[in-house]
Design a protein that fits this description.
heterodimer, A: mainly beta, four-stranded antiparallel β-sheet, globular, B: six-stranded mixed β-sheet, three-stranded antiparallel β-sheet, 11 strands, about 40% strand
């Protein structure tokens, strides 16, 4: 039972590079989320999706893009990486809002 | 604005001592609140939620609307309780995306 799987686990990017963080869930959850966690800070919502084809901005969407072509997958794209995007990124899913959220293991991203 | 405050970054107790991790929230209605936990090298996971009124791993949390608090308590801490604990509140009180506090690192010493 994989739950929420995100890749890669670690990545170092140079300023201005682009990359995609992959996220997939096998629980048939409608809702998916991307959070970032900076050192000493709580999780902040970047983007979320309430179902395939529907995405919406969270608290800190600038510099990121998402898509939700299938129920299972919710990739997060970083365009023109900046040092401010150095963070730990968590993908998560839930059956609906208000329900338990299931998290991936996190992706550590460093932009240098 | 809705907010979740966890005033302690780090809480250190000895094994067997009582522990209380503080959480205060700002919301005018009757919120649903959650505690999530992240053990070392594990993913973030739900510990307990207000609506279920359960005791999980000996932890309980009571919603105090007067004090707008949802403190997490355990009468006798164990070493395996050492982890990061996050309090969370949904936007709109019950159905929205979660707002997380900054987290409290609990360290239980032998």
């Amino acid at each position: 039972n994989a739950g929420v799987t995100q890749t890669p686990k670690f990545r170092i990017l140079k300023i201005g590079q682009s990359m995609t963080l992959q996220c997939t869930q096998d629980m048939n959850h409608n809702y998916m989320y991307w959070y970032r966690q900076d050192p000493g800070m709580g999780l902040k919502l970047i983007y979320y999706s309430v179902g395939a084809g529907i995405t919406d901005k969270g608290e800190v969407p600038n510099g990121y893009n998402v898509s939700r072509s299938t129920t299972e997958d919710f990739p997060l794209r970083l365009e023109l990486a900046a040092p401010s995007q150095t963070s730990v990124y968590f993908c998560a899913s839930s059956r609906m809002t208000g329900n338990t959220i299931y998290f991936g293991e996190g992706s550590w991203l460093t932009v240098v | 604005a809705q907010r979740v405050t966890q005033p302690e970054k780090l809480l250190s107790v000895f094994k067997g001592a009582p522990v209380e991790l503080k959480c205060n929230y700002s919301y005018s209605g009757s919120p649903e609140l959650f505690w999530y936990v992240q053990y070392s090298r594990q993913r973030l996971q739900l510990l307990l939620r207000h609506i279920s009124r359960e005791s999980i791993k000996g932890f309980t949390a009571d919603l105090n609307k007067g004090e707008t608090s949802f403190h997490l308590k355990k009468p006798f801490a164990q070493e395996e309780d050492s982890a990061m604990y996050y309090c969370a509140l949904p936007y709109g009180g019950s159905q929205g995306n979660l707002i997380f506090g900054k987290g409290t690192k609990l360290s239980v010493k032998p």
